Amino acid sequence: MTLASPETGLNPSRRSLLAGSAAAAGAFSFGFSIPFAGEAAAQGTTSEVNAWVVIHPDDTVVIRIARSEMGQGTLTGLAQLVAEELNCDWAKVTTEYPTPGQNLARNRVWGNFSTGGSRGIRESHDYVRKGGAAARMMLVEAAAGEWKVPVAECSAEKGVITHKSSGRSLRYGQVAAAAAKLEPPKDVALKDPKDWTIAGKPLARLDTADKTNGKKIYGMDLKMPGMLNAAIKDCPVFGGKVKSFDAAAIRTMPGVKHVLPVGDSAVAVVADFWWQAKTALDALPIVWDEGEHAKVSSEGIAAWLKEGLDAPEAVVGNQNGDAKGAIASAARKIEAVYSYPFQNHATMETMNATARYTPERCEVWTPTQNGEAALAAASEASGLPLAKCEAYKIDLGGGFGRRGAVHDWVRQVVLIAKQVPGTPIKLIWSREEDMTHGRYHPVTQCKLTGALDKDGNLAGLHMRISGQSIVAGIFPQNIQNGRDPVVFQGLNASGPEASIGYTIPNLLIDHAMRNPHVPPGFWRGVNLNQNAIYLECFMDELAHAAGKDPLEFRRALMKNHPKHLAVLNAAAEKAEWGKPLPEGVHRGICQTMGFGSYVAAVAEVSVSAEGKLKIHRIVAATDCGHAVNPAQIERQVEGSFVYGLSAALHGECTVKDGRIVETNFDSYNVLRMDEMPPVETVIVASGGFWGGVGEPTIAVAAPAVLNAIFAATGKRVRSLPLKNADLRKA
Fold first, then answer.
1. Cis link prior to 359 (omega < 30° from 0)?
2. Beta-carbon count within 10 A of 580 CB
3. What's the pLDDT score for residue 28?
């Protein structure tokens, strides 16, 4: 079906939409109220019961999903929540994306389009369930009206409304048009999760069949009549510009139609086919003005960050007691320095978009984690108001945060399309362009100093983080008094995500901000990844220094943190912590809290005499509160360890002469199948809250393995990736 055109007078500023929607794609979400729309007549449809639910005469139920699907299962999970309250027949459920333009035209009836921070379900469950429940109530009311009986005498189940006393029944498809004309209910009650029959069940995903039979269209597959294809090359040094290029040198090459500047830092070639465009672009003579960062190196960045570990200026993120005093008077002081590199999102599908521009309208088709941010980028680049632009979401071939807060490729394709008005232009980044112009996981170092008393108890801890701020790089207006709260993910002691999980009598966690020219981004798991390594590996160091079992050392600090302790115990129990392992195999343990969920992991590894690592087994416990689809949670946990272990073993982007060195998967390796251990998932669904599952367990992958490596070798690895470490026994 076709939804209403967004051509209305509603036109919030592009800048406010960019800031709000992009911020939500990263670390924060801004609140909004969501009106339930009884707008069927105005929209010219007969089957839209409300904004979330469309029912056709054949009883097909179309559930509208505002969040993006990128393999994480959000589409199915959200559909389950709506269908649960709708009491429809799950076998008849399908889905569709509303567009961000339609969302604006309808007063943001679908709310937030951002899909990041593991919040697709946890921050929209309430209003999407109310959308399903409201639609059910309207359908029942429509049937009762036809029968002229009280609504209380009617009930709905599996898409059929029944009048209890007479036994009469009507299918949803028979009353949907009448229901759409009713006033939406003002008070909408939701089911108790214990009564769920669709949500909470391990149902098969709705998108699997189309992904396996080739029906699913991704951005790179898109074809349009008259479409041309573009390849682009940006200055290899961030912040540099194009000085000149010789278009005449390639104009006669096969298929070439246009050679175009894109902003002041990039050049694009437009051709009949993409490979023609790329081939010509590779042959194009370009002179770059590489700018002031052309001599920056990884070594220089590391030295600058090291200075921050002892710098007098630092912003406090978490503090209680007198950590420095406790350390000064400690019976024993333990100190360690850890570091974490730049890393690329490395999505299998490179950045791409198709745009069609005319002076009257600009349309973009793109894989995006935030349709509203894509729309805002299109509006900004085209110079047209939001109401004259539209962005059509396509499923993502990987996102991991890269397609959320920053839509640089959308801006580029629109700038190209503006120079070829009326012609659809599909821009695809080459793998090399994608690898060298990403938004990278921030580079940081951390100095940890712990104080043990005479009995080996932790009396004080100081964590000094030195390094990059994502918020400063993307939303500098959100830095308050020099503080980026995202830097302290997993290290908070209070608030809705009291995530540190330990009661430490004297604690100081601070940050010395150091921002290199390489742009940061929200990389799956964000700052929780390195912070869990820093804290959990150092906890292991403290336990061994105190002569205590790492599990028992943690337990003693977690008495006031029952949810943290529960997942730690669940992982330890499943892994049979303390029981003998085969000769040469050793365990490591860790825990953290992030994205609303509590997680813990145990890794079992061995290291050969030659220093070759083998990870034999991972046990991972997750408490995400309500489990919407247990099967999908297991898959998400397993997938998160693929991503987390890939980063721990191989992930590193280095800088030489101001540019990223790693240009493809030959130099930026990812986990191979023979390196991947079996993952056993323990779901500790305690209920009462809504946590995420796509990102939290990434953070426990590396520290569990690093702690197990120490148990196996006696060596502490404090700098990732492991490919750089000598793992031969100490």
1. no
2. 7
3. 28
Residue ending a domain, among 181, 212, 243, is: 212
In the structure encoding, which two tokens stand for residue 446, read together?
Answer: 């951390």
Q: What pLDDT digit, counting tens, does each position of 667-696 carry?
A: 999 999 999 999 999 999 999 999 999 999
- Could you give the residue ranges of the DSSP H alpha helices within 582-697? 630-649
User: What type of residue is 599?
Assistant: V
Nearest-angstrom CA–CA distance, 28 and 376: 18
**Nearest alpha carbon to residue 588 among 567, 568, 558, 564:** 568
Q: Read off the tokens for 432.
A: 């090399």
In which residue are the tokens 């839509």 written?
A: 407
Instruction: Give domain status of residue 12, yes or no.
Output: no
- In the DSSP assignment, the letter for residue 691 is -
Alpha helices, DSSP H, located in 486-624: 528-545, 550-557, 562-575
Helix (H) or strand (E) holding 18: helix 14-25
Alpha carbons 85 and 103: distance in angstroms, whole number: 23
**How many angstroms separate the CA atoms of 79 and 689, rounded?**
19
H/E stretch holding 306 reads: helix 298-308
pLDDT for 175 beyond 90: yes
Same domain, 329 and 404: no
SS3 of 405-447: the string is CCCHHHHHHHHHHHCCCCCCEEEECCHHHHHHCCCEECCEEEE
Question: What tokens appear for 139 in the block?
Answer: 């359908």
Report the alpha-carbon angle 145-148-152, nearest 5.
Answer: 75
Whether 321 and 172 map to the same domain: the answer is no
